[in-house]
Amino acid sequence: MLFFTQCFGAVLDLIHLRFQHYKAKRVFSAAGQLVCVVNPTHSLKYAATRCAAAQASTEQGIPPPCHHHEAVHDPQLVPCTCPLFSCPWEGHLEVVVSHLRQTHRISILQGAEIVFLATDMHLPAPTDWIIMHSCLGHQFLLVLRKQEKYEGHPQFFATMMLIGTPSQANNFTYRLELNRNQRRLKWEATPRSILECVDSVISDGDCLVLNTSLAQLFSDNGSLAIGIAITTSKVHSSEAEM
Amino acid sequence: MLFFTQCFGAVLDLIHLRFQHYKAKRVFSAAGQLVCVVNPTHSLKYAATRCAAAQASTEQGIPPPCHHHEAVHDPQLVPCTCPLFSCPWEGHLEVVVSHLRQTHRISILQGAEIVFLATDMHLPAPTDWIIMHSCLGHQFLLVLRKQEKYEGHPQFFATMMLIGTPSQANNFTYRLELNRNQRRLKWEATPRSILECVDSVISDGDCLVLNTSLAQLFSDNGSLAIGIAITTSKVHSSEAEM
Lengths: 242, 242
Known about the structure:
Two copies of one chain form a homodimer. Chain A has helices at residues 2-28, 44-53, 56-59, 96-102, 166-169, 198-204, 212-218, 238-241, and strands at residues 34-38, 77-79, 90-92, 108-110, 113-118, 127-135, 138-150, 153-162, 172-180, 183-189, 192-193, 208-211, 224-232.
């Protein structure tokens, strides 16, 4: 009996996912684009840091500055870059992806253009929606974060980081696109390297920023579909322009 | 002597404007686009309303709801829609443009694609940058507003309104584009009718919204260049989709 109940539950879940997938495809109307349903994760990093530090700045939901390991003896080792957990792991850049997949259960998707469908946008801040994206021979980390920079006014921040060095990141351009209700919002930028801190990128506001009202206009039944595309940059000597 | 000093001042102003024009052209690198330097105006409407009402909501820089005239006897008459002043004028929709030009000195520009160069972005909120834009046989009002929705955190809001009816507005799409420092932000939407209230469009956040940090990334030496394009909508039966 229990077995049949579980089977029925699994079938219902599959129908729900299929329905969300269909909705996202309809929104973007781009045949061949992979739609990925991403469930929210309540960040444990902030919670742990808050308990430990209990600083005034973190009271308002502002994440603390990056806690890079104090003494990394081998300069080729990098700390764990997972935005969700304070993790003591460190290793070579080449094995960061497998660490994120295996230890932190972050999914990875293939394809130059995908649709990231974040569910349950109504959940209280701080909340993260995270996937890895593999294309053009590299892996990228996409982070959508709901956060209260100003108390009582949650905002959504979306950015893409290359799991690679800053000089490798300069070779790419990423685009995030929202499209619904006769409105379209596009953000294009060079991805940051995962060696920089995702928290500081978001607190600097150097990413796609959405107020709650705009997020509601772009979301459909509590889910926000973000079209993602990654291309190689035309201008490689980016530092000269900066 | 005074004459020569004035002449020298005028020449300096011209050189400064020419320099800003050149910079904006360089940013957008689109030959043939008209660059319009728009100086800020400190809105007198908010100041007057604040003095009169002194309500808690306006203390934080939130503009009051639209003050449409309480009794418009002729339904074909519309009140003055200037976002800057509380003006007792009312008249037919066809003469709103000439009223805005003559009484409120708002400039008008021709061309399907123009660059709106807002100067002195550092000025304190509330501040407005306003022009009218004539293209495709209609006139549009572009409003860029610096406002503190959250006390101590000014934001920039940009929107375009058609000087016409809501059903006429549904025939158009406007695009605002920021492009600098290897970042690009595009907002596309159907313009609202000037018969709706620009204050409520901005307080709803249904427009291009920029945090101060993003505005700084996109601005050059205190000026923000916004590329503007207006096209006729592909989908005319917009209400069906809504």
